[in-house]
Structure formats: structure tokens, C-alpha cells
Amino acid sequence: MDNTGYCNESSTSDEDMVKIAGATLDFSNTEDVPPLDRDKCSGKTNEVNGVPKLMDLLDDPVPGVGTYEDFNTIDWVREKSKDRDRHREITSKSKESTWALVKSVSDAFSGWLLMLLIGLMSGALAGGIDISAHWMTDLKEGVCLNWFWFNHEHCCWTSNETTFQERDKCPQWKSWAELIIGTTEGPFAYITNYLMYVCWALLFAFLAVTLVRAFAPYACGSGIPEIKTILSGFIIRGYLGKWTLIIKTITLVLAVSSGLSLGKEGPLVHVACCCGNILCHLFTKCRKNEAKRREVRNNSSVCCCCRWCVCGFRCPIGGVLFSLEEVSYYFPLKTLWRSFFAALVAAFTLRSINPFGNSRLVLFYVEFHTPWHLLELVPFVLLGIFGGIWGAFFIRANITWCRRRKTTWLGHYPVLEVLVVTAVTAVVAFPNSYTRTSTSELISELFNDCGLMDSSKLCNYDNLPDRPAGDDVYTAMWQLSLALVFKMLITVVTFGMKVPSGLFIPSMAVGAIAGRLLGIGMEQLAYYHHDWAIFRGWCSPGADCITPDLYAMVGAAACLGGVTRMTVSPVVIMFELTGGLEYIVPLMTAPMTSKRVEAHIRLNGYPFLEAKEEFSHKTLAMDVMRPRRSDPPLSVLTQDGMTVEDVETMITETTYSGFPVVVSHESQRLVGFVLRRDLTISIDNARQRQDGIVSTSRIFFTEYTPPQPPSSPPPLKLRGIMDLSPFTVTDHTAMDIVVDIFRKLGLCQCLITHNGRLLGIITKKDILKHVAQIANRDPDSILFN
């Protein structure tokens, strides 16, 4: 560029050149460069060739400029540049005074303080949810007379008349039949308890769905598909707001207590992200930067995953890996450390609250004493195959049902749907003790290794060391078989209703039931046929050689991996749960045979690029870019030839989120890119703050404004809101490279050029449509619904 005649001081600063090269939006630059006259350069005049100097709209920050509209994608490059500029400014000012140094140190440690607050808040909420859910679940069967806020287990712990064999029976706990008709025996008592169980379940479910519909529609579902989409840069206003947090916390307790086949672990990730989003507003660097807020939300999701794994399985490392494998989209190294710190704080908070009342952090306490044999890998592989088949069945059936819910009359009556499903669940579940109890308690019983003092039907062996099954064991197997079929079918219908619903615990329950059944079958086979060749070498008579609860745990890991497409984190979770390397091979075997594709993101139409999917098709950027040959020309702005009316007309007639800026329509030489929201806000602000701005005022995106006729209205300079270096690729760039660029840089659009001339644009939705079209799916199915 020819700089002849320019003021020399304006182009010699290395710092200015760095800012230009980094494409940062400098909101502090308030000076227009003086005109080409040398005398004017050295003077202090406020006129340019007789025309008053233009007012720069960015003398003071304009509210709204640099923000994003709902259901749009953030510009990661711009947000990162803004954060780097802020950090450089704080670092440079820290040397000027002691107060500035203190501010710099506090800014550096604010991230750790935020993680501390998130850990405390999410841990406290999780503990409260656990305690409330346990109490309300037991409330369907009875109440503690002396301390009504105690659940069944805690009520009987306080009794001096409770025996170890009948520790669930105590005079302080009264069933509803005993309170209403005065007896616990007979058909009338059974019917009374049955009706009260169903009524309480319907009441809890009705309150949950009503609160969600009335106050926070975003509080339904698990939230993980939306969280992954938000972490990738998509804006969904209100999804992480305070009302969503309050309603989701309350309705999660109600939904779990109603007995529906759902879990609370997935929605707790949503709750933790809401905590992170709300606490972000206490810190300036997070409040004003969308990229930093997503980093904090990512830490929050990791914190909650670790809290779930610490609380349920005493495995914080598995929690970090789980969040990395399933939830996270952006995961730098510092996020790993901060997430682990937040998880530590959440675990400490839970330990202080003691939600289970047993001075332990674990819900599923596991302790094995019998080693496994190499031949048992065969049933372990079978469990893995079952987990994969169950995952494939669930995904296909649930997506089909959810699509039917969206496209038929069923979607117009969510309250009726929830009540019908709850009524069917309660009516079918009550006669079976393994479906009547909460899913967490069921998994805990299936993971339990039978001992001499266990009163469970699963442990009623005729001779425990030899383990011949008694009548109660066979009865329990029939009940578990019916519970398995019921859980598999009802979970398909339940997941996706307008109540908070998680999938981890129901999936683990299906796998644990299948594993326990297979384990008991192998155990009895080894007992009655110990002389077979496959058992002769390692399973002698009287030896406890088969551990059915190990099969339950392997089955749970397999089904969890089959439904969530995870392989590493379920293995690590179960490995930490057992506390030794003894069982790492069977735990690795089952999940490796089960995987899934995240389907609910695609069903809801979220613009999410899955980082795990490979793009192997040989297409070029010109094949995907818009406009196509049959499309109208690309809507662009010129740097100095358009009026306010022209720009407002283009904004009105189009729905694009931004516009490329070119030198002229003839040359199509690219200058920059302007976001639609920034353009609208800047024009509205100029009409209010700058005198004389009318529809015929010309808009300039140039650095220097040419002289204007005295009779013309004052022009409007908007160079400050323009991205001077939008991301561009040539028209012959391979699409696999373009897809990688969008994934790794988090772009929302990319401009296509040829020898410096603008040809078109590719957005994230264009890529998703192209991928869907190649996969023979409906390209319009990716649009947000």
C-alpha cells in the first residue's frame, strides 16, 4: 500500500502493526488519522479540508456492539483476540502502580476463585438433591412419624428396636396402609399402599411437568446435547439462566421421586453449567467474553461429572475423563487442572453434607474378593455385545419416538404424556419389588456381594460357601427378568419427555440386571457341573469361583458405553470402583464392543460439528459455498459507496448474520466482515448520538474519509466494528481441511476467495447440510428446531 503523504507517526508503531496483523477489534482507538496535508499533520485543527472531523462511534463503548443474537454462533477468533488484548493491557499497567499490580494478581487468580465457588455451589445443590430425592422416593410408601423429614433408612437407624436381619422394619416408620386402615396385612392394606404409591407418583410428575412448562421450558431433558452445542459456540439465551437453575433443581427431585425410569446425573451437568454461567457475572473477564464463559461452563460440566463419579463411584479421575470424552468441546490443559480442583471442592462439599448418612461419598460401594478366570472373558464379551445391541435399540427406538412426539399431536399435550407414562410406570412397577425401589438402590443391590448377614432374595442360598441357589434366588431371577424387559421398554418412552431426565442410571440398571442374571446362571452352572472340562481346572466343589456382582458391574459398564458411545471413561470409573487392577481386563472387554452416535443433537437440529466423525469425501470449498450458480448474488457491503438507507434495506431484506465488505461491486476485492447485530446497533446509536445522520448519509468502512460536499449530510464511519482479517480460504481448498478448520477454530463462517476476489461464503450450517446430504439424510434436518 502506498503511504505517500500520510503522517509518518501513524504507521511506524510496531504495536499497531501487531494489532492489525492479529485482527483485533480495538475499541480504545478514538483518533482519526489526520489528512494528507503536512501542515495539518503538525497542526491542531479539528477540520479536514473545511469539513469537521467525523465522530468515531467507538469513542465510548456502544452497548450491544460485540455481542451476539440468540441462536447464533460466537466468533471464537474475535473473542480470543479481545481476551488477549485485555490481558496485555492489564500486564502492561501492572508495572505502573501497586494497585494495578494487585488488580493483575487478582485477575490471574479469579479463575481459581470462580472454580472454588462453582464447586461449592454445585456440590451443595447436588447434596440437597440427593437428600430430597431419597426422602420423597420413600414418601410414596410411608412416613417417619417421629421425624417426618427422615427417609426410611435414616428413620430406622435411629430406632433401638431395629434388628440387623430386619433393618428396614421399625416402629417409627409407618406405611400408608398402617396409617389409614391400621394394618399392614391383607388385600386392603396392599391396595391402599398400591393406590397411595400411584397417587404420589402422579402428584410428583404433575408438579414437575407443570413447573417446567410454566417457568422454564429449557429445564426439561438431560441438557447434555444442548450443553455440548453451547460449549461449541452456539448461543441459546436463557438455557443457563437463574430460572432454569431453580426450576431444574426442584423438578429434578420431583421427576426422580415419581419413579419414572430416569436418572439425575445427566441433568446435574446442566445444573452445574447454570451455576458456572451465573457465577461468571461476578467476574469481569468472564462476563464480557463469550469464549471465557464457555471455558468456565466447560469447567462446570467437568466439575459436575466428577461430582457424580465421586458421589456414585468414588472415582474423580473417571469423572474428568468422562467429561472429556462425552461433554467437552474445548479442553485446554488449564481446564483439566481447574476442573479437577472444582471436582475436589465439590467432593469436599458433598462429604461435609453427607447425603447418604453413612460417612461415605459412594452410593455404590463395591468390594470383591474372588479373582476372575480367563474363560469368563466369554460371558464378559457377551455382555459387551448385549450392551451394544441395547444401545443401538435404545437410540433407534428413542429417536423414532421423539420424532413422532415432535411431528404428531402427542407433542401438543406434554402434561398428559407425562401423566400417562407415570401412571403406567407406577402401576406396573409396584408389584415387583425390583422396579418399585429407586433405580439407584436397585443398582446398589445388584452390585452387592452376598454375605452371611445379607437379607436380599439374591443372597438366599441354601449353603453360602457352596452357593446352591434357593427358591428366593430363582424368584428374584424371574422378577429381575421382568424388570429388565420393563426397564428397556419404559426408558425408551420416558427419555425426552418435558421433565428433567438423565440416561446414565437407567442404562446402568439395564446392564446391571442383565449382568447379574448372567452371573447367577454361570454360578449355578459351575456349581452343578463343576466336573465339566471348562470348570474342572479352576472351579472345584465348595469354592466360591464365580462372582455374580462382578458380572453386574461389567454389564453396567457395557450398557453405559453402548448408550453414550464412551469406552475409556466407563472402564476407568469401574476400575476406580473396584480399587485394583484385578478386574481391568473384563471391564475393558465389555465397553469396547459397544458404541453409539450422539443422535439427540441431530434430532433437535443443533449446529454442532462432531469432532469424532471423519470427513473423507473429496469435495472442494467451491462445491459447498454459497451462492450457487442458480442463487442470487452474494449480499455484500462496499467500503465507501453505500448510504444508511441502502444498508438498512439490505438488513431488512435478508436474514444473514453478517456481511462481507468489498472495495466495490465491480472488483469484489475483500476488505473485511461486519456482523449484522453490530451494524444495526451502530446505526441506531449514530442516529441518537451524532447530529445530522439521515438515510442519505454515506457509510464508510475506510480508514480515511474523503472530503464531502458542504451540502451533503455528515457521513458515518463504521470501520471500528469491521473485522479486518476475516478467515478466508481459496475456492480450491479441500473440504476435509475446511471442516477441520471449523472444528478446531470454532468458526461460524469462512469466506471463499480466488486471487483476492470474493466468491462466496461457507457457514457451519452449510457444512452440516453438506455432510447430511452426503450421508443421504435430509439437509434441512440440521436447522435449529
From TrEMBL:
**Assigned keywords, A-Z:** Antiport, ATP-binding, CBS domain, Chloride, Endosome, Ion transport, Membrane, Nucleotide-binding, Repeat, Transmembrane, Transmembrane helix, Transport
- Can you name one GO molecular function term for this protein? voltage-gated chloride channel activity
A Pfam family matched in the record: CBS
Per UniProt, subcellular location reads as: Endosome membrane; Membrane
A Gene Ontology cellular component where this protein is annotated is: synaptic vesicle
Source organism superkingdom: Eukaryota
UniProt lists the family membership as follows: Belongs to the chloride channel (TC 2.A.49) family.
Protein name as annotated:
Chloride channel protein
Q: What is the organism lineage in this UniProt record?
A: Eukaryota, Metazoa, Chordata, Craniata, Vertebrata
